[in-house]
Design goal:
- The protein has no helices and nine strands.
- Strands 1-2-3-7-6 form a five-stranded antiparallel beta sheet, with no helix packed on it.
- It is an all-beta fold.
- Helix content is 0%, strand content 55%.
Length: 122
Amino acid sequence: MHACDRSLPSCLDFSLARTSELGLYRIELRPCLPCMSSGPLSRIEVSIAARDGLAVDHAEVEVSGGMPQRGLRLAGSPVVRHRGGGSYRIEDLLLSPPGWWLLRLTVTAAAGVDIVTFNLVL
């Protein structure tokens, strides 16, 4: 449990590297500090690899999520930019107010469509 919010469910996984639900992709978030915070617009670097470890380029990545405890969805329209070598950047991500956020990425690439969800506390 994070010290910043004692009301979080105790079973949450806060890892920033995860395998997607169907096991098609390995996805890692690299928050751009100090810009990754609650408030105006944040930016997150994302790397996507296939099951065999090779970088996934030119994937379609859809961003969704929200705050489960407050019933809020992501506001605005996050933009995902491909940077090459399996690297992507999520820009214009509005994470406000502070607290527990779910960030859900839907990845569509040659291996198929798969989803990964991250827990973030800001």
